[in-house]
Amino acid sequence: MGIFATSPKARAAALVAPPLIYSLLLLAFPLVAIVVISFWTQSGLNLDRTFTTANYREIFSGPIYIWGNANRWGVLPLSIFVSATVTLITVALAYPIAYFVSFVVAPERKSLWLFLITIPFWTSYLIRVFLWKVILGYNGVVNTGLIELGIIQEPLNVLLYNLNSVIITLAHAYAVFAILPIYVALEKIDRSLLEASQDLGENRFTTFLRVTLPLSVPGIVGAVLIVFIPTIGDYVTPELMLGSGGRLMSNVIQTQFLQLNNWPLGAALSIITMLAVGIVSLLFILLNRRWLRGRA
Amino acid sequence: MRRAWGLRTYAIIYLVFLYAPILLLPLFAFNDAAIIAFPLTGFSTRWFEQLWTTQALHQALRNSLFIASITAILATLLGTCAARAGTMPSFPGKRGALGFVMLPLVLPEIVIAVALLIVVRQVLDLNLSNWTVIAAHTVICIPFSIAILNGAFQNLDPSFEEAAMDLGETRWGAFRLVTLPLVLPGIISSLLICFIISLDDFVIAQFLTGSNPTMPVYIYGLTRFVDALPLIMALGTILVTISITLLIIAEYFRRRGVARAGFKDTGGFL
Amino acid sequence: MTALIQLRGIHKHYGDYHALRGIDLEIRQGEFFSLLGPSGCGKTTLLRTIAGFETPSSGTLMIDGKDMAAVPANHRPTNMVFQSYAIFPHLTVAENVGFGLRREPMSKDQKTKAVAEALAMVGLSGYGTRAAHALSGGQRQRVALARALILKPKVLLLDEPLSALDKKMREQMQVELIRLQRTVGITFILVTHDQEEALVMSDRIAVMFEGEIGQMADPETLYRRPNSRRVAEFIGKMNILPGQVGMEGNRIVVDVAGLGRGAVETDQAPGGVVPGNTSVGIRPETLGVLFPGETTDRRVAEGVVDEVVYYGDMTYYDVRVPGVQQPLTISMKNIIGRPVLEVGAPTRVVWDERSLVVLSR
Fold it and tell me: Per the domain annotation, does A282 fall within a domain?
């Protein structure tokens, strides 16, 4: 009989235990470790385990990470700006698609459309990023293609090694993350609400503004968060797209860990990044709380 | 069908944007030239032949397959537990526990990688190996597994298992004869998706891989050599083909699961 | 006759929530027994306790003389028809019906034969190879019945089995269920919130409120002699009027405000008599209105028609009688040649003390 004969609640608890314990050991514990190590310092090849806020002081004092100077932004504000821009563009481009699949596509073909949209997402991320580099590069597909067609004579320089390319690549990479939450929110809207709105004198467009859009806000919020958060942590795209010159927060962290071997500073940078992401996300949720109330 | 030609056109353009990179892959993979540019110079399979003879690549592929297989099984096992618990009566802290397990969905991947690196090297003082990658990949795959399996478990009428027990089956018998067949498509689909996620992941692998790189880490190394570009194209073609094949199988099983349970298909993996 | 099922002092707590508050119940072999009550009254919890899906917090449950405390659901001599029917969607109709036979010591041929018989019993011969999810609501219910009855349980438990069906189908299945129960002779326990369904189908009914049994009786007693105000209000329509009750010698005397005094029999106060203020119930069909020109030697009260609701076979009148707190609802059969009174028409209400019920509680 054992645990299987006990109450349903106890059985549920017994089932939650394995994944929970796994996550505690391999997620909670490491997150604690990262906090602890951020208050230590690196001295040569060893860690100096005396408690100090030196890493944080370094991050907040110099012009590199937070404040920037007259010529360039600090890495963190720049990263947040890039991620926010990527998020804005990705979600704006994704909304019409989600709307299209939810409201225009015939019900029996919806899953086919969703499947078509999801396929590119499941192909190697690294290769997709790399392909954009090939497409947008100086001798890349767009340039050589346009020259071939006689539209331009000289290759365009604006395509690669600037933030535009990062934004295009990330908007492509996170498209699905933006579409699905919005689609789910749109699917939940009771279609009779739209008929009620039209019955009460609104046309299709004003119905969209007054009924559909507000009801889809939870989906938009979900999409924004699920795009914004991981893009901050992405360093492959900036590295491949910006070349050696461009550095966003995640590149800086990666460098501290894998090249400069200053783990405590890297840990502190990770924590600052997480905090910044958390604060921006919370602010965004608070701004939209009016639309989120009473809904899942 | 409604008109909405504007939206329809937009959707087509958007799909072209989504697929453009993938469609270019085979184009250049089978192109004879060593430079990735138009015009194409001629059909060739020489890049694939070169892949075939690169030993380091084979080792990386074996590593990746091993890591992805173990990760898929572990994450799906743990995900099944969580998803099933999700449909059972609540107890204090259940929501919190399940929410915590889903946390990796909203954590930047680099933070998970860095945090685990610190634990493995500084706290436990272990060497990096395929197993450290598996441990981390399982953490990020569990939420996906739960998301897929939640659909499967929540579609189940809670009376099914009770009915089976009422008809004389034990709790295990009821699970095996009724629940398992009904969620099996979800389990297969979870296995495949976790497999793909692990196979694709670069960030965590770069931090936690041991002396033998995984496939993405190996590819990343190749991107530094200009003359390796067509090789990457060929490799990418193979990987994309594998991913899409697995994905179609996963989708097939998911749909069969939906059809079996007799529910309307609302589509989508997430 | 000894009871097949005995419940003694069954309590069930969910945290702070007291779902069952001391249920005592005996159900006889071969009985069609109903648990009737509004949603949340504990009737389903009680049924699931008998089935073994809920463990009572205290109290004993005996089935066929055996204590069920240590017997899990899969070993109880009960089978259940679930509200959702719980037809396994991945199996065919025959596989569903034969599901419980897996552990029975029977040959394959015997099992096939048993399934065919069970399907025939519910009128689904030839449906065995159909996919379960392709069935209609009524067919699903028949499959659920066949599946539960194939194991020849001592008790069949039915959890709101008709609530998912439309009205016509529901009425048809009511008749079929009664016939089926008589054929197989198995004890049926039905949970329902539909008082009409319970009255039509049951030998006995337990009316439940807030985890307690309010009254347990055969349908006629329950309808004619409800023992409390909430039972009276839950079952059928009832005029409930304020009044006085008291004893004069051995006789119970009731004074209904606005109608008058009358002596009643002991069985007209099934909840007992507490002298003083009370509520008095009168069923609409035990009252009458006098049409112009009609006379009666029964007791009458003058009134004015306040509302007329025409039902085809019946007409319901609300009649205001001076001194009576609210309009009296009266139902009259529509007979050829009898006009329907109009709103505002003066009329006389006929009543009889033999149809009064004293509802002290």
Answer: yes
The predicted model gives A131-152 an average pLDDT of: 79
Q: Does B231 touch chain A (CB under 8 A)?
A: no
Q: Give me the CATH topology for the region B55-260.
A: MetI-like fold (1.10.3720)
CB-CB under 8 Å, A115 with B10:
no
Which residues from chain B sit within 8 angstroms of residue A22, using beta carbons?
78, 138-139, 142
For residue A199, pLDDT over 90 is answered with no
Query: Which parts of chain B register pLDDT below 50?
Result: 1, 264-270
Contact state of A34 with B223 under an 8 Å Cβ cutoff: no
What separation in angstroms does the CA of A148 have from each of A133, A142, B23, B42? Answer: 19, 10, 19, 17
Q: Where are the domains of chain B?
A: 1-44, 55-260
Option in B157, B162, B182 nearest C90 (CB) = B182
- Stretches where chain C sits below pLDDT 70 are 1, 361
pLDDT score for C115: 94
What is the average pLDDT score of chain A?
82
Q: Does the CB of B28 have a partner CB in chain A at under 8 Å?
A: yes
Does B226 touch chain A if contact means CB atoms closer than 8 Å?
A: no
Q: Is C292 exposed, middle or buried (0-12, 13-18, 19+ CB in 10 A)?
A: exposed
Domain that holds residue A268: 74-292
Q: Is the ipTM of this complex over 0.95?
A: no
Q: Is the domain of A30 the same as that of A124?
A: no
